[in-house]
Amino acid sequence: MKRMKQLARTAVYWPGIDSQIMDLCRTCPTCAEHQGNPPKAPVHPWMLPEKPRSRVNIDHAVNFMGHN
User: What's the predicted TM-score (pTM) here?
Assistant: First the structure.
């Protein structure tokens, strides 16, 4: 809900926007269905490389636990 309010404030404003967003979130059937149980991201399998070492994968985390 916090992120939704922040996003809305960057685009629009009207008096009572926060309370209206909170009311919408509390009464939205789709929000209630997925609350605490977000939909899983689809899995995209990697294609097999043509030959060994033809592809290198790197995981890069920025600012992970205060370190780069």
Answer: 0.45
